[in-house]
Specification:
Length: 170
Amino acid sequence: MSGHIRIVNDPVDLVPLLMTFHNSTFKQVYDLLNKSWMTEEELCSHLEEGDVGHCLLVLKKGSLIEEKWRMPEPGQKPIKEYRATYNKFRANFQCNFVDLSDLLFIAVSNDEQLRLMVEKVEEELRSGNTSINDIARKFAVNPVFIKGLAKRIPHLDVKGQGLVLLDRSQ
């Protein structure tokens, strides 16, 4: 493992990190990938339960893992393998406690209101409203809250000042 340092300049980037280390399955997957390159199938064989595919999506979205194609045996298909990208962390940001509390809540909560908010945001995106500021204003929340939701949900992402729905098969 190389000495890569994960430098976080935006507090919103804490959401995937906190999700990873707050969930035992995510942490197990990350710990295994911190040791060596592994395929999704190899990861599944080391875990008793948990959705490894979902874990990989969140880790990838948080830029915590890298991927490459494993050279197959003759006659076999290539398969993706993953490993952890960073082994050190540095935070380089300042934010107010309202934003920080929102981001912590989003990262570690299983509150029903979060799920409902995600559904409302997805409806807005499907109707054509992609502006983070417009969506935040409509639901009377901070734009950082909307960005944090996008970091939590694997099929949402932030692009500039807007949100996009990602293909769920990615």
